[in-house]
Amino acid sequence: MLQDRRRPGRLTRRSHRGGDLAARDGSVLRVQDDPQQGRALVILPTYDERKTLAEVVERLRRSAPGADVLIVDDASPDGTGEVAEELAAADPRVSVLHRPAKLGLGTAYLAGFERAIAGDYRWAVEMDADGSHLPEELPRLLAAARAGAGLVLGARWVPGGRIVGWPWHRRAISRAGTGVARLALRSGLRDITSGFRVLDTRWIARLDLEQIVAEGYGFQIETAWALERRGARIAEVPITFVERRAGRSKMSVGIVVEALRLVLLWGWRLRFAPGRLPDA
């Protein structure tokens, strides 16, 4: 049982559902889902996900049998940590990192990044443990990463991407939030807020993780934008996002406000004080 008590060139963008990836500059990324090109660590932050965790891990192990799974549990009161321990005891490719309190999505992923780098993994995968991100789609994201992308976003707002189970107003809010982030940050990414993604750990190692400030929803924006600014090759792969079937969403007003505040602050600095941009 692992314990954690601390807070841890020009962009080329493309979308992909199958086959080779065509870049804007005419180059092609050859898509071959070859696990021999590097090991992957799937990071699953959890807080009260007892009802869905076992199924998600089972589907992950079936869909991407060569990947390892790290469950980062924030002292879930519903017994998620115990379920995670049972899964780890039954499968050597599953491990658990227990944290003493609810410390936030961003710090959970930072802890996972540290494990991935220390464990010599080539790829770090971010995804939800509530079933919203389909494990069956992970091989396509990994294939795009192995084709040469430093960051692969599982994208909802690209041709072929879709959302299942959201009412129109929730779609509108999500689309508007993505639009605000793109406009404020002058980003070319069409789903910069996506939480289903694959990162090359060599690119993660180039970031100053201590300078990451967002702890919730804004973490996804901050890290994707940091890699975009550094010229990482980024692919956006269409996915199907499915509304959770059990448990409650962890999205709160406070998390949304944090993300909006940071995006507007970074956008202002980008235009008027570029020397004060985050150095991640």
TrEMBL record:
The UniProt keyword set, sorted, is: Glycosyltransferase, Transferase
Annotated Gene Ontology MF terms? dolichyl-phosphate beta-D-mannosyltransferase activity
Q: Which residues form the Glycosyltransferase 2-like domain?
A: 42-203
Among CDD domains, the record links this protein to: DPM1_like
Name the Gene Ontology biological process terms.
glycolipid biosynthetic process
Where does the UniProt annotation place the signal sequence?
Answer: none
Question: What is one term from the GO cellular component aspect held by the record?
Answer: membrane
UniProt superkingdom: Bacteria
Protein family (similarity comment):
Belongs to the glycosyltransferase 2 family.
Q: Under which name does UniProt file this protein?
A: Polyprenol monophosphomannose synthase
Biological source species = Leucobacter weissii
